[in-house]
Amino acid sequence: MRTRIILNGKKAGLKSVRDAISETRKQTHSLEVRATYES
Protein backbone atom coordinates (compact mmCIF):
# COMPACT_ATOMS: atom_id res chain seq x y z
CA MET A 1 0.00 0.00 0.00
CA ARG A 2 1.27 3.46 -0.91
CA THR A 3 0.68 6.46 1.34
CA ARG A 4 0.91 10.04 0.12
CA ILE A 5 0.95 13.06 2.42
CA ILE A 6 0.00 16.42 0.94
CA LEU A 7 1.21 19.34 3.05
CA ASN A 8 0.72 23.05 2.94
CA GLY A 9 4.07 24.51 1.88
CA LYS A 10 4.51 26.52 5.08
CA LYS A 11 3.84 23.49 7.28
CA ALA A 12 6.27 21.30 5.32
CA GLY A 13 9.18 23.21 6.83
CA LEU A 14 8.20 22.63 10.46
CA LYS A 15 10.69 20.48 12.35
CA SER A 16 7.91 18.54 14.09
CA VAL A 17 6.34 17.64 10.75
CA ARG A 18 9.68 16.66 9.22
CA ASP A 19 10.52 14.52 12.26
CA ALA A 20 7.15 12.76 12.09
CA ILE A 21 7.63 12.01 8.40
CA SER A 22 11.12 10.70 9.06
CA GLU A 23 9.86 8.35 11.78
CA THR A 24 7.00 7.16 9.57
CA ARG A 25 9.42 6.45 6.71
CA LYS A 26 11.41 4.19 9.04
CA GLN A 27 8.26 2.08 9.51
CA THR A 28 7.05 2.00 5.90
CA HIS A 29 8.82 2.07 2.56
CA SER A 30 6.01 3.60 0.55
CA LEU A 31 5.51 7.10 1.96
CA GLU A 32 5.42 9.99 -0.52
CA VAL A 33 5.30 13.63 0.54
CA ARG A 34 4.06 16.47 -1.65
CA ALA A 35 3.93 20.15 -0.73
CA THR A 36 1.38 22.61 -2.08
CA TYR A 37 2.24 26.16 -3.04
CA GLU A 38 0.49 29.32 -4.10
CA SER A 39 1.93 31.60 -6.72
| Protein structure class | alpha+beta
Number of separate strands: 2
Shape: flat
Tally of alpha and pi helices:
2
CA-atom Rg in angstroms: 11 Å
Order of helices and strands: EHHE
Low-pLDDT residue intervals, each spanning 5 or more residues: none
Provide mean pLDDT, rounded: 89
Compute the separation of the termini in Å.
32 Å
Q: In this structure, how is the largest beta sheet organized?
A: 2 strands, parallel
Give the % helix.
40-55%
Sheet-strand content, in percent, reads 25-35%
Strand order of the largest sheet: 1-2
Count of separate structural domains: 1
Question: How would you describe this structure to a colleague?
Answer:
This protein is an alpha+beta fold and 39 residues long. The protein has one domain (3-35). Helix content is 44%, strand content 26%. The chain contains two helices and two strands. The chain has helices at residues 9-12, 15-27, and strands spanning 3-7, 31-35. A two-stranded parallel ribbon has the order 1-2. The longest helix is centred in the middle third of the chain and has 13 residues, at 15-27. The protein starts with a strand and ends with a strand.
Please write out the topology.
Layout lengths: L2 E5 L1 H4 L2 H13 L3 E5 L4
Parallel strand pairs: 1-2
List keywords for this structure.
39 residues; alpha+beta; two-stranded parallel ribbon; 44% helix; 26% strand
Brief characterization of the structure:
The chain contains two helices and two strands.
